[in-house]
Amino acid sequence: MRIFSGIQPTGRKHLGNYIGAIRQYVEGQDRGDAIYCIVDLHAITVAYDPAELRDRLYDTTAILLAAGLDPQRCILFRQADVKEHTELAWLLANVTAYGDLTRMHQFKEKSAEQREFVSAGLFQYPVLQAADVLAYRTDEVPVGEDQKQHIEVMRGIAERFNARFGETFVVPSHRIPEVGARIMDLQSPERKMSTTGATELGTVFVLDEPDRVVKKFKSAVTDSGTEIVRRPDKPGISNLIEILAVVRDTTPDAVEKEYADAGGYAGFKEDVGRAVADYLAPVRERFAELRPNEAGLERILATGAEKARAISSETVTLARRRMGVGPPDG
Ligand code: TYM
To answer: Which of 1, 71, 93, 124 could join 32 via S-S bond, C-beta 3.0 to 4.6 A?
Structure first.
């Protein structure tokens, strides 16, 4: 089974990225033929600084390695190193319905955040994402819940291409975790945790110091009750229950049982904070060892790109041929 996922090298990676996606990437290495891509070409669709983009790319690479990605057991590469992605994105744009792109939640949200300029790249973002996945004839895409709509669109693109030009692409499925698919902001638990638009205190970064992590959880916004249960009117507590279940590798039900007689939130919030701090500490330590060696990170990415190119170039050649562009044997 082929597994593929992508992550943006923007901002600082947070607990939502870690729980929703990164932990699934690590586990994917044992389940299939896993390919992970750091999508720098997606990161340039909104306002950004070129020098900072490079720094964040190394940060993201080192975080993924620190989390447990092993270049011997997966392919880890940088999107812009494999030109097949951009070429395929153009081909696929011609079997993508304009109307589908206008319905994308992420485009609506991100274009509203851009004060000065909304790029056509931002609008085309899901087409490039479809190219990322389809180029590798991927079966399964591990992502958080917010990417569901993008996966639906790429399935439609693959189906339309296959119907019009003949079987070429595998129609991929998403793999969204049962618990932790949508980690919420600790200060505004009705909003998902994210790098943009959220509060610093409500966002737990993978590289936050342990004391800072605990402080953020202690200040988490909850309701005025005392019961530790998941309920729609208790988004803050529900979020903390899911987070604790994931980092302790247990179930939300077990967490609720354990805290049934807690009689208040303070101790619970502190326990979640300490558990998350312990969960992230080894990642933070390994990151500190790996991050300074930029040449080493570049070598890992270059090796990954070579392997990725060998796979994706075959698919793109076939797509070109089927579409009748370029020389007949090209
Ligand atoms: P990005 O970098 O924004 O997010 C990376 C992953 O983190 C997940 N995620 C969350 N999961 C749970 N709770 C949250 N609060 C939370 N916030 C983010 C995202 O669902 C994602 O899985 N478009 C992708 C990047 C991409 C991609 C791809 C993904 C480009 N090409 C191909 C899969 C396949 C994105 O926005 O990632």
So the answer is: 1
